[in-house]
Specification:
By secondary structure, the protein is an all-alpha fold. It is built from 14 helices and no strands. Helix content is 69%, strand content 0%.
Length: 325
């Protein structure tokens, strides 16, 4: 073997590593751009980041990365299930079961020395007839409900696909388990307490913020006319989704994942302040997230996630470039 051949072979790993680093930087830039676009849509246009909007934006990234066919293979079943779940949510409050309200208020008061946190937070931080920075911040976190878990899923899919399969499996298990609770144990949020028992001096600050700003009439109409289940407060999936993302992210990026933990805490505060959840709903969401994460350690769900990963890896072999994951 000539010296030139040896040098060529030795340079191959370096060239591969260099190409991998460039691809990694490109992926990072694309994902940052995607998050920036989502934020612009939410802040400037006041748009909800719904699964259908997410599909369009994520598909563009997949095409740029040369993973269009793989995106369809990995994401289409999940998106179909998610959309089906979203469409079923409104069914849970049409079955005639007793809606819980006064008993939840009593539980809140027993935990917080006679106080209801939503009432106290609004009395302390909100000034009627105006929109302050806290209102804007919490409203933004609320409308980003689908954006965060789906963006995290997209990030996992791009950089570490086996983690994506486990995360998506847990996300679906948690969402459908919560749907069962919504059916069997409907709970009215603080903003609707008066319709089912004791009325609380709690405003729907999300609606007030939309109405006061008057820059997003489409979002305001959607919120008023196409909201989901009005008595699906327990558990709070707004609280569960970011925590589930944190639990999976910390397996690989222990320090960086703390950002998601801080984000989770901000969401927990937001949903209580806005009048959309009680603290016990938030606790329920936390327990569901931890439970779904723990369930992925069981043999059955591990096999499901492993099967999804194996199928995805086999699909990679027929795609140009054979994306790593």
């Amino acid at each position: 073997m000539s010296d030139v051949t040896r040098l060529d072979q030795a340079s191959e790993p370096e060239a591969t590593d260099h190409a991998g680093r460039r691809l990694g930087r490109a992926m990072t830039i694309l994902l940052i751009g995607y998050v920036g676009l989502v934020i612009a849509l939410v802040v400037v246009r006041g748009a909800y980041v719904t699964p259908d909007l997410f599909i369009i934006l994520a598909a563009v990234i997949a095409v740029v990365l040369g993973r269009a066919r793989l995106f369809v293979r990995d994401w289409l079943p999940f998106i179909a299930i998610l959309l089906a779940w979203q469409s079923m949510r409104s069914l849970a409050d049409n079955l005639g079961l007793t809606v819980h309200s006064d008993d939840i208020i009593a539980l809140e008061r027993s935990l917080f020395f006679g106080m209801v946190p939503s009432v106290e937070l609004q009395a302390w931080l909100h000034q009627a007839g105006s929109v302050n920075a806290i209102d804007l911040f919490t409203a933004f976190l609320y409308v980003a409900h689908f954006a965060l878990p789906l963006t995290v899923a997209l990030f996992f899919w791009v950089v570490r696909r086996p983690l994506y399969y486990r995360y998506i499996t847990a996300l679906m298990v948690m969402s459908f388990s919560a749907f069962v609770v919504f059916i069997l144990f409907p709970v009215a949020p603080p903003r609707f307490a008066g319709a089912y028992g004791e009325a609380l001096p709690v405003r729907d600050l999300l609606n007030d913020t939309f109405t006061s700003l008057q820059f997003a009439p489409v979002t305001t109409w959607l919120y008023a006319n196409i909201s989901g289940n009005d008595v699906a407060a327990m558990p709070s999936l707004h609280s569960a989704y970011p925590l589930l993302a944190y639990l999976f992210a910390r397996e690989v990026w222990r320090r960086a994942s703390l950002v998601l933990l801080v984000y989770s805490a901000a969401v927990w505060f937001s949903v209580v302040y806005l009048g959309h959840h009680y603290v016990v709903d938030v606790i329920g969401g936390i327990l569901f997230a931890v439970g779904a994460y723990a369930a992925l350690q069981t043999p059955v769900l591990q096999r499901v996630a492993t099967w999804l990963a194996d199928v995805g890896r086999r699909a990679c072999t027929v795609l140009p470039g054979r994306p790593r994951g």
